[in-house]
Amino acid sequence: MEIITKKSASQLVLENLCSYILDDAVKIGDRFPSEKDLCAMLGVGRGTVREAVKILISQGFLEIKPGLGTFIKGKTPIQTDSLSDWFATNEVELQDLIVIRSALEPLATKLAIEKCNDNQLNMLKKNQTEAMKSAEHLDAAALAQYDEEFHRIIFHITGNALLIEINDIITRHLLQFRQHTFKIKSNIDNFIPAHDAIIKAFETHDTALGEKRMKQHIKKVAKDLENSKFNS
């Protein structure tokens, strides 16, 4: 496993641990490294490791045996027919997060458009190009990463330290949601054009349009969340 040094540590830790589990040398039934060992190997805190392990347990990769530790349970994720249960179970927290995003993301978009330079705009465009490639392959894990990165770029363009910090907190809570939602094709089909519309507002330096497009995007995310409970 590689030491994690960049942003989006939760996502990178999750990907690192998935790679470890899927390695041919690791067998179902093997003991998984302890939380302490994982922190040392990856160079991250306990909270980040716990979050990743929790997701891996929910996806059927790991299981906890009381008094014994954590073990490799499987090498394939949960089937999509169980996603509806996950969305229903986590609905309250997700709705709370959407309320916060509805307030903050349009503001961040407005501020970002006011300050955005050509290099930053190119970062958004590059992100979208890679996301579209992942969408073609229905790569849920990659799409979750690009979606997270897209919104993080916007917050960082604002230069507002408090907004950036709040977004980092929200991002940690959204990790599981993003991982699950992009397993549903209709959600993939919705988010690509939404990001395109936001980028166009950046290109024309239209703050009002940017706010509007981001509000529409978050509203659609809320609708996707509702549909995910029934269509997964």
TrEMBL record:
Keywords: DNA-binding, Transcription, Transcription regulation
Residues of the HTH gntR-type domain: 7-75
Keyword Transcription regulation attached: yes
Domain of life: Bacteria
GO molecular function term, any single one: DNA-binding transcription factor activity
Protein known as: FadR family transcriptional regulator
